[in-house]
Amino acid sequence: MTFIQKLLCVAGVTFASLGHAHGADVVIKRGYVENRYGQLHYQMAVPTESKAKQRTPLVMFHQTANTSLEFGKLIPEMGRDRTVIAIDTPGYGGSDGPKEVPTITDYMTAVNEGLKNLGYGTNKPVDVLGLHTGAFTGIELAIAEPKMVRKVVLVGVWLVSEETRLRAISRLPRYKTSVEFFDWFAANLPRLQKTQLAQNAGDTDWGLVIADSLRPLIKREYGHDAAFSYAAKLRERAPMVTQPVLLLALNDGIRQSTLDSQPLFKKPTLADFPNLQEGAFFTAAPELGVSLRKFLD
């Protein structure tokens, strides 16, 4: 059995086993809700104490090409005292997606429909946490729904020059078949393994996140296409966010651009973690939770 086959077999078993997890303070369930692309998949952490449920729910949007799995232990950590909804972006993880390359506005509209179909809206607001591509989706949702989105947390804001943006677009892999995609994946596996070591992510955690990221196949880069296009207008869109914004800066490769984006927002706060990689969602969830609660509560 090849490495990829083993990885997918492990993922298949584990995805099924995560359907209904219990902890001392939180219950995590998986579910689906309708939107324009079909079904939107999410993980929902629900606190067991009734008083905790009075806090504003927190909605999480992941980066491309990962899924809600990448938020790891941050989901149950924040779910101890509020509802947490970690959504798979349309086309990723268990969510149905578009047939053509979408825009960040398309992603935002789809998750907005999903949230409203779950009962959230003007009379039942949410807080939003977005990572990389998810940060752009969070910005657009905050602009579109100022009465539904109360506060915004952005982890990794890609603020770059036009030259850098165009270079990133030109370097996107353009595989046309699943065979080409898996050839690309096999060639890039050593680089992905180095990333795992640098992030100090656990082997199983890393493996599950990577396996889940393979599910879009030849549409895997749709999110990058959308994000790289959106970056051209970030300087115009970010000042339109009227809500308080927490910029959570990790050592994630775009740390400096996250710091540089602070003046773009009307009500920014900075939480700086220069010693934490993205693996911190698994390894340092309580530490991150302290900063998030300080801002959100």
Structure description:
- This protein has 297 residues and is α/β, with parallel strands linked by helices.
- It has one domain: Rossmann fold.
- Helices cover 41% and strands 19% of the residues.
- It contains twelve helices and nine strands.
- Strands 1-2-3-5-4-6-7-8-9 form a nine-stranded mixed β-sheet, with helices on both faces.
- Strand 8, helix 10 and strand 9 form a beta-alpha-beta unit.
- Helix 1 crosses helix 7.
- It starts with a helix and ends with a helix.
- The N terminus is likely disordered.
Order of helices and strands: HEEEEHEHEHEHHHHHEHEHH
**Tell me, what's the shape?**
globular
Rounded mean pLDDT is 90
Number of helices: 12
Which second-level CATH architecture applies?
3-Layer(aba) Sandwich
Biggest beta sheet summary: 9 strands, mixed
What would you call the structural class? Answer: alpha/beta
- Total tally of structural domains: 1
In the CATH scheme, the class would be Alpha Beta
Strand order, sheet with most strands:
1-2-3-5-4-6-7-8-9
CATH topology: Rossmann fold
Measured as a percent range, the helix fraction is 40-55%
